[in-house]
């Protein structure tokens, strides 16, 4: 399995982020932008999927802010991440690509449509939800995380924390010869404080009031054995989006990597369905 090379891309007025851009089979291959899970990087979440997708599509990954070699800012917010994705779409002249997200990435994908609807040609939401804090356990976890981040925010922006994250990421410039060591380096390139702040902000996400207004072809990949995000909530979200198709798999929340043999075929089917509907003049009315 080949890990694609990447580069730092300047997003005007926002900062620099690490991006991979794998060409498709043709110069005009449809573009797919992949958004990663919390605590991961673009490559760590999506490396099993990039090569299969690239047989039909131009495939782009990016490290979100505070993750890997993503934008370093004073604060983390999902709204800022969505604006970063829109800026990348403009910078790479992608038109209106299919935006695909896994877990945190699916929340960001929802917000890309919400904040920049004309820049999105379709959505694929994997292991997703329309809100957190839907159970007592989730509410307690997110509340505690928010309070903890208030106390550690200064530490999270310390030179030591930033230097450690960037030092680990620098090692990724080398060609990986051992998948385990490479994956560990990717994982360590995001600081624990960054993960904490991201989780706290995700706890404030609530898209239920506007899901029914999503007007682009959408597919939802449901992880039926998910212990992090309720499969019931994943299916309920899909039902709220007009014409959304459901692609379920008997897998857990880390399916994108640990159960890629199940996840990747479902992802390919979901992206293919969205792409076919995007090309149809009947769009959502045919669903």
UniProtKB/TrEMBL annotation:
Q: Where is the AB hydrolase-1 domain?
A: 30-257
Q: What Gene3D superfamilies does its record include?
A: alpha/beta hydrolase (3.40.50.1820)
Span of the secretion signal? Answer: none
Q: Which InterPro entries match?
A: AB_hydrolase_1 (IPR000073), AB_hydrolase_fold (IPR029058), AB_hydrolase_sf (IPR050266)
Molecular-function GO terms, alphabetical: hydrolase activity
List UniProt keywords, sorted A-Z.
Answer: Hydrolase
Question: What is the protein name given in its UniProt record?
Answer: Alpha/beta fold hydrolase
**Organism in which the protein naturally occurs:** Nocardioides caricicola
